[in-house]
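To: structure subgroup
Subject: Chain for Friday's discussion

All,

I'm putting the inputs and outputs inline so they're searchable in the archive.
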Amino acid sequence: MIHYHCSQTALSKNQEEKLLKKISSSHSQIVNLHSQYIHYAEFIDEPSLDDIKTLENLLIYGEPRESGSTSKHKFIIIPRFGTLSPWASKATDIAKRCGLKITKIERGLLINLISEKDLVQKEIEEISRNCFDRMTETIIYDQIDGHKLFIQEDPKPLQSVDILNNGINILHDYNIKNGLALSEDEVQYLYQNFLKINKNPTDAELMMFAQANSEHCRHKIFNASWNMDGKDQEKSLFQMIRNTHNKNPKKTIVAYSDNSSIIEGKKINRFYPGRDNKFKPHSEKTHYLMKVETHNHPTAISPFPGAATGSGGEIRDEGATGRGSKPKAGLTGFSVSNLNIPNYSLPWETAPEKPDHISSPLDIMIDGPIGGASYNNEFGRPNIAGYFRVFEQKVDGKKYGYHKPIMLAGGVGNISDNHTHKKLLDENVLLIQLGGPGMLIGLGGGAASSMDSGSNDESLDYASVQRGNPEIQRRAQEVIDRCWQLQEDNPILSIHDVGAGGLSNAFPELINDGEVGAEFDIRNIDTEEKGMAPHELWCNESQERYVLAINQQSLDLFKKICDRERCPFRVIGKAKKNRHIHVKDNLLNQDVVNMDLDVLLGKPPKLLKKIPKKIEKDIPKSSKINDKDLYKKVISHPSVASKKFLITIGDRSVTGLIAQDQMVGPWQTPVSNVAVTKFSFEDVTGEAFAIGERTPLAISNAKKSARMAVAEAITNIVAANIGNITNVKLSANWMAASGDDDEDNNLFAAVHAVGEELCPQLGISIPVGKDSMSMTTKWNDRVVTSPLSLIVTAFSECENIQKTCTPEFIRQDDYIFLYIDLGMNQYRIGGSIAEQVNNTMSSECPDIDDPKILVGFCDVIQQLINQNLIYAYHDRSDGGLFATLSEMAFASRCGIDIDLSQINAEYPNILFSEELGAVIQVDKKNEEEIINLFREKNIKYIFNIGKINHLNQINIKHGSDFILEQRSELEKIWSLNSYHIQSIRDNAKLAAQELSLVDDNNDPGIRSDIKFKLKFTSIAGTKKPQIAILREQGVNGHYEMAAAFYYAGFDTIDVHMQDLMDGNYTITDFRAFVACGGFSYGDVLGAGEGWSKVILNNPMLRDQFTSFFNQSNSIALGVCNGCQMMSNLKSIIPGADKWPKFVKNLSDQFESRVVTVKIPKNNSIFFNEMENSSIPVITAHGEGRAFFSNPNDHKEMSQKEQITLQYVTNLHEVTTHYPLNPNGSVDGVTGFTNDDGRFNIMMPHPERVFRSDQNTWSRDKNSGYGPWFKMFTNAYYYLKNS
């Protein structure tokens, strides 16, 4: 039976207004609209009235609002038929745990159109076409059609291609029709091999071969033989990259042979739960791993899911390294063509044009970053670095741009020394699929991403893009974590992620690495779509899956771990001694795949690239850039301008191990050089990573572009205390329009320049990387080619995370700015932003003329960092010296007086050339000593160029030339790109509020006002109070929460809600619990509401929690998601009846901010002695606005001293001003307690900043505890004394 339920409202008023604007721009007769959610629930049996009531209660969630008008003109956006949406999977989980016997709950978005006149059906269909994502959604016009979501088709048959009777031509036709992207040589190879065994290939075998041997998976161009201008080349591209490792293998443990590269670490106290579920530090040797991927094609087709699954796939790469590891922190980057933002046209932009089914650059930059950020957020990986490039220009008659975007996703993780290498497999080892179900999404993605954008069939392009469900990937990662935490008893022998090609690529990789063959039964695969054909089951690229091998005797242990984490798994097959892969279908009684591994993964004919002599472009050697407003244009270019719109949407603090993210200083300016993580809570060592890219230079000189990308990554990462430059390891991500002779010439030249020349000269290696060789967009008679693009990410150990240098100046008059020019006074302007804003291009561009200069620069900077002689550091890159100095002034909220007259070069070139270099702030008394250190390294061009001023003026002069601007005006210009995108994407009114903050010259910035002593006495004792670190599926903040309580003196016990349901614990076993942050059930049915509804609708759990709250000496804390959950338990918490629920932020966006909260007088046991203190803290939530059912409730709570935290300005006055108040809560309220102060909820995250060096905004870092640590010690002393 299918039950229908309509909500009163769905989208926020702001979202409805935006949708109305979009629709009415092309259909002016639509004057209003109203949205509702329509829910479809399929019961297994006829439901009782109580069942219906329970279901109806579950489906009331979010902010209560008056319903709008309904209309006969409507359409409903629902998930694509035959798929299970991420929302449905989690809503169904909740319903089942509430006791409902239900098959599935799905949700559609019903749009009621209010029109001035009646609409015909054709008009409604036309309107609806522009309102949904055809990759993941479909449209219906009658709610009854929603029943099709539950129809299960009969399994489709296996098919074969009859080459035995029809010859090779039928194979050619099949290849083209199905978008397999096989070359002529590969078709011949397959034909001959199947003829040998007198067998027609099945569609599954052909699809499997196409994915396994796609350019995406096999890197055929990088492994090809090259003939340049008639001369055979000695090395392939990959061999040239490997040359860097061969010459400098130091500290690299794994390179090129696993999902990530592993770099040697050290012995640390790694914090995690042991076999007894108690969190504690474990002393063990731990390494760091590095990986950077791209997901360009899917992001072009459908930006949100494309970027989301790009991030998700890279996270899986990290987790599936060795025998299981832990992802730690991420990075994201984008390159796109001109944005053409409405009402913000930039003078160099041209009229946009693109293929119909490729997203516009603006759509990519609105939806793509949200997709990547939301995946990282929900999984629980902080995204703390990135880049953004906008480029589109015609040069010598050829159109360049990023119509096919670059979407970069990468990060670092940690792995135990015991688990760095996968094990060889024995006969009958079990082969397992872990994670989500298979669905008909992402079919043929490996092949599709290997083709030029626009060249594939449109329907095949859409079919090739995947869709993400990060909450279930989090569950799978928890299983992997439990396994490696068993140390030598880790049951995982080998593990691979499931990505391009699905299981058909992942299982062959797993068994090939294990040096075995295998036998599988395709009907053992976990799937939600029973009607899939065998090749669809085997080859689909459904996300959130891993394949792994365990011994038979480990199955019970592994099942126990999976059951506790509620993570699905299936045994799909067993390893066999022979090198053969046999996939059976026991339902249809057929062989789906039956072939030797050597045919699948052997050596099809090697690609030969024959490239003619390069034809040099007709590009002038230099250009004149003398424009009085040039500095304003440069600083407004999106590649230079503020990237804040990309950053605040991503959680940058989860894990509690972040020492430096993109934001800098008390005014949280997005100008950081480098990202830095802590190895462990106790340690001052960690990891650092930074990005470099100079892609426009490749149009005139690919070698210089590649060298400058490497150099920029190094001048960024050197801001951290990395020690010797040889500690640096690079990831090289190569994008090229291969097949274009000019671009192939560029590719070979660039790889040679980096692999054979620069990196060996610098003493650094490239142990990991990726390539994407189809960076051309073709449609009709148009072609847009991406420049040869090398994106370099530098990684290194960090010797002391507290010594990281940022661009923030110290406001001291006797400190000076030293400008270090590594371009040796050449000031080449080619490829610069200054040229791009004038649509010009010259060939004389920056380069590293002497690599020894760069090595010497790094040596001196590291020496100065170690001696604490640098107070601010910023490298020169996009926008030149002018952007460097301006960004430092913005980060410091001060003016600068700069005199460049001593530099003998043209004035505009001095400011806007993008040669290598940096500006550092040092004490005037150390000037001579520091300059001599550089000169000892043959760095001659060092200048004292100025210091701060207190007038908030940017004052730059060179002889008679000068720039004089107010810092606030210049920063506003720099902020406009971010503001306009936020206005379109989020809430325009709030975006304007944020922009207005740059005008306030008197804003003191984030600061503390502590009214209590920060001396924390040592907490010791044999009897520690126990606290349950309570988590539900999807919670991701439990490690840092456990650490905060552990170091405050508690025994911290990992308690999953499944433990309570299974009787492993009862919540009344503890006197204290803390409900942790994250995304329980992916925030489905309201943030935290699903978690609370499971408790309230499960009689056993309800009784347990009711008993706990009614004990006289128990305490509880809910933070973020735990706060949202506990607020919905207020009916069973004594004295909490006035608590609010938490609803969507007014910005309609996830907000990750450093804010300040004030602690008013209150009766909470957690905030004892902290009254009237104002303390900076992290927030990271999408639904944090306090909503009171009665408007007077918060006033009553204030009178009863039940409000514990309020957002305040930097002057420490209560505020609703965005983003100082990130969610719009009335009176800034964000923390609450009950009548007697024992049960507390709060949206901010004190557990992520309980140590001094976790406060990324502050330059005063040490190894001690920060002010928020008192919260946790207060709880300890309360329990010890009561």
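Points worth raising on Friday:
The chain has a mean pLDDT of 94.
The CA atoms of residues 322 and 420 lie 4 Å apart.

D.
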